[in-house]
Design the sequence.
């Protein structure tokens, strides 16, 4: 999955759930804060599909925890 596509999907998850979305650029990775959860996204043009799925799963988990 392309990194930009992953970031767009993370933004969409945050906006659908009404959570804050913040990006903090580091050396080799980007820290993405959605609500109270920090996710680490590698800074590569292409991100391994399994890695991307794990990041999206964690983002969805934060979304559903916030609904409770």
Sequence:
């Amino acid at each position: 999955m392309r990194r930009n596509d992953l970031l767009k999907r993370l933004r969409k998850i945050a906006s659908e759930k009404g959570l804050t979305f913040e990006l903090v650029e580091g050396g080799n990775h980007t820290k993405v804060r959605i609500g109270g959860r920090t996710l680490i996204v590698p800074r590569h043009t292409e991100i391994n599909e399994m890695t991307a799925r794990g990041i999206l799963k964690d983002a969805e988990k934060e979304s559903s925890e916030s609904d409770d």
